[in-house]
DNA sequence: CTGAAAGCGCTTACAG
DNA sequence: CTGAAAGCGCTTACAG
């Protein structure tokens, strides 16, 4: 584009660069009315727009943050990003979006580059492989907020679903509906994905609470691609579960795929409840009972935490884990 | 974070800033081996990482681009963004994601801010309300690529689905399946959303091609929230359509909601085919026949076009519209 | 009420 | 093979 700079405006208006800068930053306290008008006119005529890179260099603030998710294609991440973007937009921040794909190497590259580009802070779904790096950032008082995953030993404000409760609600609902043989199907359990670990723990605790002994044959976890076989195995044992909690949307999808293929009738042959309110829950037959995460509120909270950290420059009193309530949406699948 | 600058590295290594800069930019042609080692060591010891903002100011390139979508929550946009991000990541670019919500004012604000932040180029789903602004950018030789929408009079490379063909495939499939009374349901038709206009045109042309007269009562369009009433009206007329083409995923959702509520059996009571391959198409009962957009290829193409524009600084020969083939995925709903 | 000057952290001819 | 110097386009004390 054109290369109109502040110097050009200053010349055109017949004032100094300093004065133009004052004008742009709305420091009008001592500015003559005439001066103001002259500058306004010059800006208009030249079509001047300030170079924010130059400002950023001087002010050490870029008004942009980085958001590192596992994969933007996951609906939860998309919703969180949308909420973050809305919040940032109101505060005149922009967001750089990065997909780490649960790969610590990729995550590290992004963190380093974002830092080099001087973004004012980072919101991350951490992979778990860069605890040390994050700790370095924190020690340097760099603003970081985590989402969905807790890294032990990394003291960062973290926004989480109350996963334990989500499982409790799910199991309780199934019990209430008269089921006793309740299973859970889960993705692989790497220990860094806190939400998964917590949901499984919550499932076990909920069973206990209801006086149902935990049966290891009723808990299946594995890569999405292997799940079909494992589900088959689980459901064809001597005394299979009558009801299943799907740990997340992608597991639910696999169960539904299996159910369709085997022509199982839901909930008669198999009752279902899923954590994550999938888009098609209400139009499925039967409509699917789900437990929704308040993704937008969670994203907004993360943005709020980060921006307040950025503005206050302090690390005080916000090293907590913020828990959000899961919402049961009762439909027809159990 | 720490405030280690190139000057610190230079001092520590006992060389000048220039030399450090040469080192960082891998201009090793004339650099002594010893010097190299000294600098490497200094960087390591100090944990130096260059300030890219400073570099950007000097080089007039930020290695970041802006992506303005209508709404990241639309699945197509999410997929396009993911593809763009992947492509950019390979080329060491970052993306700033913006939601314009089909609001020209919001779009303008984003464009202005992105420009001010000196992003190297913009990929947009344009709202249609800022043709003039875009033309200014283009005249200033600023790299812009459009996605999904054509603005007449704005000469920019544009990535599009062959929407006409998508409708043709849909109608032809329905005809082949023995349906003659074929309707289409669509979102509102503001003239700027090219894809919608083209799909409707395509629908009409396809009917003609198959010798079926166009019946205005079989074409319904309106706000998503009003669609249920309109669908009801359409399907309860004397001789209602036996089959329907859903213009996009959101329309399809409304039709399915209606069908479930009215307990219509698909395809017996109503055959369906949807443009956009929705996530639940394969697990729905019956599985839904859809026409998929190659969203990832389209996003990749947009990124490729933009980056090559950025690198070549020329506007030559790429002012075309790039059309992508829709893919029929035949399932059970028609 | 306004301007001259220094500085943010780099890069880049140019000189030697 | 390396360094001094100017400059990218802003902001910010400070002087007047």
TrEMBL record, chains A, B:
Molecular function in Gene Ontology: DNA-binding transcription factor activity; transcription cis-regulatory region binding
Pfam families listed in its UniProt record: LacI (PF00356), Peripla_BP_3 (PF13377)
Residue ranges constituting the HTH lacI-type domain according to the UniProt record: 4-59
UniProt name for this protein: LacI family transcriptional regulator
Keyword vocabulary terms for this entry: DNA-binding, Transcription, Transcription regulation
Alphabetical list of SMART domains matching this protein: HTH_LACI
InterPro entries per the UniProt record, alphabetical: HTH_LacI, LacI/GalR-like_sensor, Lambda_DNA-bd_dom_sf, Peripla_BP_I
Record organism: Virgibacillus necropolis
